Amino acid sequence: MAGSVNATGTAIGFDGERVAGPRLGLVDESGTWTVAGASWSDGRTWPDRDTPTFLDGTGPQPVELGVVAAAPRRDAPGRGVAVWLPCLARS
């Protein structure tokens, strides 16, 4: 559940749970996630630019946050990276 959204729609405060795949050793499921650059779906299309239009900051928004674990490379640390963000039906 995206409970908070920054003013530009590029980061969310996410309270969720792991539903598939290995547990991330780098970060928790819940917390602050940068979603700028992730593909997002409004149920019809999958834009890969701009910010998700459904992240309007009007209240908790159910979303699926797809994350991969990026390995460290050179001076970049390993971390969880938000890759996709579909909007789920509002409850």
Quick overview:
With 91 residues, this protein is mainly β.
Order of helices and strands: EEEEEE
Quantity of strands, as a count: 6
Q: Which blocks of ≥5 consecutive residues have pLDDT under 50?
A: none
Biggest sheet overview: 3 strands, antiparallel
Q: Number of helical segments?
A: 0
Query: Average pLDDT value?
Result: 83
Q: Based on CA inertia axes, which overall geometry fits?
A: globular
Whole-angstrom Rg: 13 Å
Q: Determine the strand fraction and express it as a percent band.
A: 25-35%
Spatial strand order of the main sheet: 1-2-3
Helix and strand content put the structural class at mainly beta
Number of domains: 1
Ends distance: 10 Å
User: Roughly what percent helix?
Assistant: under 10%
Explain the overall architecture.
It is a single chain. With 91 residues, the protein is mainly beta. It has one domain. Helix content is 0%, strand content 31%. The chain contains no helices and 6 strands. The chain has strands at 2-5, 11-14, 31-34, 39-41, 66-70, 79-86. The strands form 2 sheets. The chain has a 3-stranded antiparallel β-sheet with strand order 1-2-3, with no helix packed on it. A 3-stranded mixed β-sheet has the order 4-6-5, with no helix packed on it. The protein is globular. The mean pLDDT is 83.
